[in-house]
Amino acid sequence: MILSHRWLRRHLSELPEPADVVAGLEQIGVEVASKSPWGENFSSVELVQVVSRRPHPDSDHLSLVDVRRGSGEVTQIVTGASNGFPGDRLWYAPPGTTLPDGRTLEVRALRGIESPGMLLSPEELGFDAHTGDLWVWSGAEPLGASFLEVIGGLDMLYELELTPNIAQYLQSVRHLAHELAAIWGMTLAPQVTPFAYQNEPLARIDAPERCPLYGLVAMKIKPGQSSPLWLQTLLRAVGHRIIHPAVDITNFVLWDLGEPLHAFDAKKVEGPIEVRLAKPGERLTLLDGRELALNVEDLVIADETKPLALAGIMGGIDSGVSADTEDIWLECAHFSAPGIFRSFKQHGLMTDAANHFGRGTDPWAVFDAPSFVAQVLEEAGILERVTSSTLQGELPAERRVDRDLARIRSLLGVDWSDDKLTHALDGFGYEREQDQVIVPRYRHDVETVYDLAEDVARFYGLDAIPRRLPEGRTALAKTSPRVAFDEEIRDLTASAGYQEVITRTLVSPDFEKLSWETRGTPIRVANPLREEESELRSHILGSLLEVVRYNRARHSKPIRIFELGPVFRREGQEVQEGRELGVALSLEPDETYPHRETPSLYDLTGLADFLFERLGIADGARRDTVDGPRFLHPGRCQRLVIGDRPVGFVGELRPRLAQQYRVRRLGVLVMRIDQMPAQRISHPGRPSKFPEVERDLSLVIPGHISYQAIGEALSRLTIDTLSDVRPIDKFQGDFGTSLTIRLRFQSHQETLTDAVVDREIGRILGELRTIGVELR
Q1: Which candidate, 259, 237, 444, places its Cα nearest to that of 353?
Q2: Is the per-residue pLDDT at 332 higher than 80?
Q3: What is the pTM of this model?
Q4: In sequence order, what E strands does 291-382 have?
């Protein structure tokens, strides 16, 4: 937003210097990105009087005009203008003057006669005057007067950076002046008397939820007039073109009061105004010439036959005012911000009006704006009379917030008195009502006591708040059972030698071919950045395979990866989030040295058993050999079942599919974590302060005895000090199979002696003999 110092002074007559204005704006939360003077190029433009005029000797359309300047000097100017006769007073720009369009004047020869500078028309100065080609001045200023002095002297422009919350209510000069007056203790210029609407049948609201309040004022104006010079000057300073008095005044009110207005040429409107939603197939040609295909969610201003404007955003060309307009209908409305925001985003129409309405406007401005417009047009001799008016709808209800001064003190960390806090709230326009405050109607950002505390801080400035650390009790964060369970699975899978990867949840539509069960209707993203990321994934296997493809395109190292991540499925109209564990293992010889045993599907079935055992659900878990999903190799698939509920599968991809991911053989495991009936989390015990004792036993094992049978035999002994058992070597000899196991003993009460350990080993060997296992 561009703020004019002179414009701000209309509301604050005692406005301080620009440096103080910048400080005040920053105190109320408005960042001033830059400030720059405006009007310097008008300082050399001076008022002159025509002495004589004669035709150019070598041209039938040029004239030689002698003008007397303020110093008494007479200068000859070559001009092609049709007016400018002896006695007329004109505006003259000498060489070196830079015009608003960027041209810098110099001495030029026109048909052999030099012309130092030029006589100016209103358009060349960026203004509108309706006096013919040249601007014939009728004011009382003396010859030599500077045009800059006539328009009020140099102005200072502030470029404001408004954060979204501030922009909701400070996009107007009046509201900025109100807050500055409050913090400086100044008197704000009085507002105009609110407009008294009649009840003529000029308009009706058919969509009250999108337009709570709609005012329409019919005015008769004089055609061929220009806006007052002061208004043109302020609009030019902030970058607006001068168009027509009815349009200029609406642009002025938009930035002055924050209320976008729109003027219709009443003769181009057929019947009363309707504020309604667009009908299917309706189109509208906007003021900028664009033709718009309306949708049924767009709010439009229409007459009995056609749409006239896209409500709150831009008017239509068929009802726009023109130079010969004599009757206007001035629209003063309060639109619902979300609806305007959706429409201008949908059609890509970021206008000043949409920027205001889309953030929320002051509904009371519907009463202030027409009074101000009528006053300005009447003072300029443009308004003949207000003929009729109507007001439809109601003012939105006032909002209230608890006036909790103790909470405000706590939030700010100050010990200020109630009177000091109340003074700040009163200054920013809050009205007291018992234990609550009435929020100003234009403050759409205020909802809780936190917003009141922010306003108090802005009123006195953040520098006034002492620096202190926040006080309060702190507590250790507690991990939820679900998160802890997922972390347990990740830790167990990583401990089995697999590397975790993290992939995106957004996938392409052809992703569903790798789903191992029917998932229903795909969940499509409303505004995908690209087609490859247009749906939420319903399974995790496809994401893992993309990682396999990416890595195999760059090296041929073994694949041992896993991911535990979210998947999504639709249940009726609701979208549910689940969790899946996916594991991918390349079933190929390892080319690295030292060589390791080639992985097989038994590694994955072993991983499943390992997880079930460590998670405490091994008793109800089993693996069934069934026909798996179509993308798995027939006969190389097992279903994972807990109780009677399938929770996943282990299998090998079909060779052709595996080759698409640059691997010859690939085993996969998928497990639905959210389908686990019991979620037990292991907690590490307290470490013992006594040392461990390790013993290795080399055993001769009959061929029919499995390692599982050895483990079951040891578990039957219930040796409290036996903390770990693991195989460390296997050997085939003439005597049969030898297996070396390592036993680890540790006590939490004492240091174990050799005698105690030997006694336990004797018990172990005795139990093993019952199943045919002997010490080698």
Answers
A1: 259
A2: yes
A3: 0.67
A4: 291-293, 299-302, 307-310, 314-315, 327-334
